[in-house]
Amino acid sequence: MIQTEDALLTKDDFAKRTDLPDWLLREYQTFHTTVTDKTFPCYFGMNGELKGELRYAYVMQNDWSNLTAALKSFLTLFKEPTYKRHGLFVFVEPFEIEGSLDDYRKQFWEILQYLHEVDEIEWPVKSPIDPEHYLWDFHFHGEPIFVFSNAPAYKQRKTRNLGNAMVIGFQPRRIFEGLKGTEPGGMMSREKVRERVAVWDQLPKHPDISHFGDPSHHEWKQFFIGDDAEPIQGVCPFTHKEMK
Q1: Do the Cβ atoms of 64 and 96 come closer than 8 Å?
Q2: What is the pLDDT of residues 140-198, one digit of tens each?
Q3: Is the pTM of this model over 0.70?
Q4: 174 phi-psi bin (left φ>0, alpha ψ -120 to 50, beta other)
Q5: Which of 16, 83, 89, 119 is the most interior residue, by most CB within 10 Å?
Q6: Distances in Å between the alpha carbon of 55 and those of 9, 13, 139, 180?
Q7: Strands 143-150 and 138-140
Q8: How many CB atoms within 10 Å of residue 243?
Q9: Which residues contact 69 (CB under 8 A, 6 or more apart)?
Q10: Rounded to whole angstroms, how far apart are CA atoms 183 and 215?
């Protein structure tokens, strides 16, 4: 079992702690180099990494318990009145042999399902539990969280490839205050980022990318987009406990 007492990591921990696995140190260095590249499209992530505002965690292939402890600790940061726009990035121990995008997608949804199954706090009553509802969002510990994937199997969407490990981003909805898709500041900021992403990837914006609250949009499809410009088909792999 992973020791979960210090599950939530800071930037400094990668230089100071001696108990972190070698693969994690390598993958963090790749992550750091990538997101601090001056041309990297997401300047929110770039600034967060440079300022030390991001947080990190890791899970092994056969042990995900570290994530529960890390996510709980991470959410306590937002109890502070002057919280920053923190984001949590979770490194998943690489497969022995690189998998297909579907392999990473399957594991991504299995990890979110695991988090839901072990969550001690009930899903908010007013929040939809069916992913097909346009206002559905993932919740953990009562908090709505935008979750997104990065994986080595992304070959065209280079902005989604941050190394040899799958890296899962967790962004509580609170950090989007003032930057929502329907607010002027949010629309402008997101469009600038998306324009930069299109240049990096040499692909148009993925058709499933939109903003939360769009009636024609399914939020779950944005969590793990394709490595192309084709809409995601099928049903959401996530199932709320009450729908089983």
Answers
A1: no
A2: 999 999 999 999 999 999 989 999 999 999 999 887 765 544 444 445 556 776 777 77
A3: yes
A4: alpha
A5: 89
A6: 6, 10, 19, 22
A7: antiparallel
A8: 9
A9: 4, 5, 7, 8
A10: 16
List, as one string, the DSSP characters of 168-183.
EEEEEGGGGTT--TTS
Which secondary structure element, helix H or strand E, spans residue 73, and what is its range? helix 65-76
**Token pair for residue 4?**
């979960």
Residues 6 or more apart whose Cβ sits within 8 Å of residue 87: 44, 45, 48, 53, 54, 55, 169, 170, 171, 175
Q: Pull the structure tokens for residue 22.
A: 């070698």
Q: How far is residue 92's CA from residue 242's CA, in Å, rounded to a whole number?
A: 28
Q: Which two tokens stand for residue 227?
A: 């490595």
Q: Which of 65, 75, 57 is nearest to 9 (CA)?
A: 57
Please identify which residue in the block is written with the tokens 């990494």.
Answer: 49
